[in-house]
Amino acid sequence: MNEVMDPNASVARQRFEQARRRAALSQVSARLTGEDIQLLPFEAIRTQLQQQNPYYRGVVEVPLDAIVGSVGRYKTFTRKFLPLTDSVKDRWVAVDALAARRGWPPVELYQVGNVYFVKDGNHRVSVARQLELNSIEAHVLAYPVDVTIDPKDNLDHIFIQLGEQSFMASTRLADRYPDHQIRFTSPGRYTELMAQIHGLRQVLAQIDGEMLDWETAVDAWYEMVYLPTVQIIQDSTLLHDFPGRTEADLFAWLSQHRERLEERYGTCKKLAELAQLLADEYREPALPRLTRQVRRLLGVAGEPPSLPAIEEVLGSDLAPGEDGPAASDE
Is there a single domain that holds both residue 133 and residue 44? Predict the structure, then answer.
């Protein structure tokens, strides 16, 4: 049907062009402000969930502002479902025109906490947002996860949230140590803590001749490994050199680079001993060498400074021509 016979198609094309202009402006603004306007990829988030089997909630009205990602179209639309390419124009216009004639069937969404991801119906969601609707009818498959996600959050922050929830659900640490303050500013660290607990459990089993129950192993790790190290970090000036980072970040950094640090400071039976040696070296009131070097790593305004690559700390102690590991904490 041509546009003379179907005036809805002509209006729909105008709306699409308007949406494309808004998308282009959003991209320019994002480059200037650093705002993340990309849709969140559902599969990347799904892999972080403990429960992999969603349950069907039925057909419900879902706020459009709460739809933040997509299964397969996360590179095609912005976080507000503005089209990023002309390749979707024909489909978009057809969906818009259909809405004017007889409406749409419900879209299909996955729910994670308080946000949603499009399984089927990306164009319908995009058109609905351009029509300034408040909600859309949807078949909802919900994952049983108790997490509150800011619809404006970036992927790393969501990974941190989901990692924390998984860690606390597995360890129940917060039930026994409600003031634990284990918070990270980069993703993947809770997995490292879990590996430490499993490792300590194996070591203690070799010493005692029997495997500790999981809860006892978690408490042993917290009281024997984590807490003594963090207390030294808190009592030192180390955190002052990394505003925005946490004691848990520095604990993870020490753990990650323990072997290389021991090449300089000597073998330490406990991570806390290594933290004390590092704290003692950088206790002087003048601007520490560590801070001077890390200042070079400062990047996007407003973000906490990166924890240094191990070479930044060891400095000239690396033998001439020796290459340290390329990976940093980030």
Answer: yes
